[in-house]
Specification:
With about 70 residues, the chain is mainly alpha-helical. Helices cover about 70% and strands about 0% of the residues. α1 crosses α3.
Length: about 70
């Protein structure tokens, strides 16, 4: 999988911005659009780096709780 513009934008947001609002403002985007770009870019980043996404981590935790692995 190769990087996309969303992945590059995610890395820019992650490394250079404190808020989605400022990130969106600097690009002339709506907050909703910026949020979607960040989500998509994060998913690509996780796949490229062979890391589970946040949703996968939550799902794994729920499965472990249901299996009695957590108190």
């Amino acid at each position: 999988m190769e990087t996309t513009q969303d992945h590059k934008d995610f890395l820019d947001w992650y490394n250079n911005y404190l808020t989605v609002e400022l990130f969106a403002e600097h690009r002339g985007w709506t907050i909703e659009h910026a949020t979607n770009v960040i989500k998509h870019g994060r998913a690509i980043h996780c796949k490229l780096n062979d890391k589970p996404s946040f949703n996968q981590k939550i799902e794994n935790y729920i499965v472990e709780v249901m299996a009695g692995k957590h108190d």
